[in-house]
Design brief:
alpha+beta, Aminopeptidase
Length: 162
Amino acid sequence: MNAGDAEIYTRWLNDEATASNIGQYRKVVSLVTEQKYLDNASSGGHNYAIVLLDGDKLIGNISLVDENAIDRTATLGIFIGDEEYRSKGYGAEAIRLILDYGFKTLNLHNIMLTVHYDNPRAIACYKKVGFREFGRRRDAVYKAGRKVDLIYMDILDDEIRR
């Protein structure tokens, strides 16, 4: 991730449809705030831009956070910011790559994520890659005047090898 891309990220994070799916819908993100975040994110951890090979175009980002080396766990976060590139397989490809990195290089055993129930496109992508639902927090998210379940999904290192 590059702080020079802050304008693009700020535009995506302030887009209602994008923000709604990634839990950013309650706040407006300023350019300065996003630049600071990107400076921090790019200096440590496992935060990566999703960039098209053809044309080097930034289309989203993916990360592994809350890594616990003792328990061998981490949490996955991803979004495709540019609507034009959603549902084209880029998210699934990025997830497969970061799972490979997480399991083989970081020696993780369990990678989890959370997703809003009203985001069926993301749920389908996660299932396609091999994630399975292991829990649900009912009415956990309040957005647009309604309550939405938060779905917990995970995948184990030996499941990805199958």
